[in-house]
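Let's study a protein:

===
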Amino acid sequence: MNRRETSPHREWRRSGKPAKAYQITGYESPQRRRYLRELAEQEASQSV
């Protein structure tokens, strides 16, 4: 894994892998928690 992949959160948001960004940092900011919750709700409503 190259360095660019592990650094900025914006990169992860664009790549659509919030779970991985969480694994790397081990910390969720309030904004990120809200973003993840909205993302999960969208996925849940799409899969049903």
In short: Residues 30-47 form the longest helix (18 residues). Residues 10-47 form one domain.
